[in-house]
Write a structure and sequence with these properties.
Length: about 90
Amino acid sequence: MNKADLVSEISSKTGLTKTKSGEVVDTIIETLQNTLSNGEKITLVGFGSFGTIERKERKGRNPQNGAEITIPARRSVKFKSGSSLDSLVNS
């Protein structure tokens, strides 16, 4: 499923136009992005939780020539699925 499919599904289930449904999806995505960029956690009961983790600087190798490189420290997004989602996926 892609964003257009999601918009169509929301539109058909709610009776909203595809334009309004698209605005809703865009607003949800923007809100999630802003919350995570501020380092806050998002918990959607029954679905899962999103958060950020700090990755330390580490050594790696360039696969083309084998030279050692330093991979810089960075924040990364993680997702932990909720038990309801896990049971739906595994049924």
